[in-house]
Design brief:
The protein has helices spanning 17-24, 63-71, 89-92, 106-122, 124-132, 158-169, 183-189, 196-202, 222-226, 245-254, 284-290, 306-326, 343-347; strands at 7-10, 31-34, 52-55, 76-79, 97-99, 150-154, 173-177, 192-193, 205-208, 232-236, 257-262, 295-297. With 352 residues, it is an alpha/beta fold. The chain is globular.
């Protein structure tokens, strides 16, 4: 199928998306329609007549939506991001291919995580508002040297590795946890793989860079927090549901958690990327987190750099081109193996 014959429906389009995707589409010629609605049961019929659907992190790709897509002869779901917890892979398996962008700019997210660390540590967010009010006192703004402190990195994929290298540059001791250890990288960079209790016990800063799964859902909860150092800094630029938000609030209230930097939140799909500045925040948990002066929340902007957006656009459209041109699926997510690329596809064990 020629690329200029392929119709692609974009859901949850942001103001910046058309510029990057239209640029990447110049030589391909896909017929792209940008919908600014979230994908849900009410908006799914908009995909009728399209060959592929492109979705973002807060779009819902449920079993019923997949059934609707199958009836409408949608052939491919392309995620313009790395995460896929919003897709029912059980329902998709054997019916529809799902592809993602496994790596767009690990440096973007890792640098944002470190920016949260530095801002919280040196109280830059508080100092900014203080000096805007002509208040130049230093009371309450004392931080700590990150040099020779211990950072615990949970997840040593590309983003976790980028974070490790940055923190090693500060002269920090780095501990890491991952089910699949990259020992050659460990030896080359110089950090220690440990179990989670050790990481919690010894880390001054804990930063989350692992995917969301059944095993990692609420990885940071009451039990994990109890094992951490008093006054620990907790950073999450991964997925909101890695942290039990109510347990986090309890930890902040007791002082067990001294700082929290969150680029993601459990129920973010209702709020992030939208403007609620003229409304009362209806989410009591999010409102409570926003009330702490030692909590810094950003609205899932870790990926938001020019380089990352350019890579996302190019990889997303290349995923679509590969499938419709020759049937290749280099970045397919497989329910059976949940990795990209799918080894079963290469060995012929997955559906085609």
């Amino acid at each position: 199928m020629k690329t200029d014959e392929v119709k692609v429906a974009f859901f949850d389009t942001k103001s910046y998306d058309p510029g990057f995707f239209d640029e990447a589409n110049k030589e391909l010629g896909f017929k792209i329609t940008y919908f600014y609605n979230h994908l849900n049961l009410e908006t799914a019929p908009l995909a009728s007549g399209y060959d592929a659907v492109c979705v973002f992190v807060n779009d819902t790709v449920s079993e019923k939506i997949l059934e609707r897509f199958c009836r409408d002869k949608v052939r491919l779901i392309a995620l313009r991001g790395a995460g896929y917890n919003n897709v029912d892979l059980h329902a998709a398996f054997g019916k529809m291919h799902v592809v993602r962008v496994p790596a767009y700019s690990p440096h973007a997210v890792a640098e944002h995580a470190v920016a949260l660390m530095l801002t919280l540590n040196r109280k830059i967010h508080r100092a900014y508002y203080r000096t805007r009010d002509n208040n130049f006192t230093l009371d309450g703004l004392m931080g700590f040297d990150m040099h020779q402190k211990t950072a615990g990195i949970i997840g040593t994929g590309q983003i976790g590795k980028a974070a490790i290298e940055i923190l090693k540059g500060f002269g920090m001791r780095v501990l890491a946890y991952d089910l699949f250890r990259d020992t050659s990288y460990q030896q080359r960079i110089g950090f220690d793989y440990v179990d989670l209790p050790t990481l919690y016990r010894e880390s001054d800063i804990v930063s989350l860079h692992c995917p969301l799964s059944k095993e990692t859902h609420h990885l940071i909860g009451e039990k994990a927090i109890a094992q951490m150092k008093p006054g620990v800094m907790l950073i999450n630029t991964g997925r909101g549901m890695l942290i039990d938000s109510r347990a986090l609030i309890d930890g902040l209230k007791t002082g067990k958690i001294g700082y929290a930097g969150l680029d993601v939140y459990e129920e973010e799909s209702e709020y992030f990327f939208e403007d609620f500045s003229n409304a009362v925040m209806p989410d009591d948990v999010l409102a409570r987190l926003l009330s702490f002066n030692n909590v810094l929340i950003t609205s899932h902007q870790g990926f938001f750099t020019r380089e990352a957006l350019r890579n996302i656009a190019q990889t997303t459209l290349n995923n679509i081109r590969e499938y419709f041109s020759n049937g290749n699926l280099p970045n397919e997510i497989c329910y059976k193996c949940s990795v990209t690329p799918c080894p079963r596809l290469k060995s012929g064990q997955c559906f085609k």
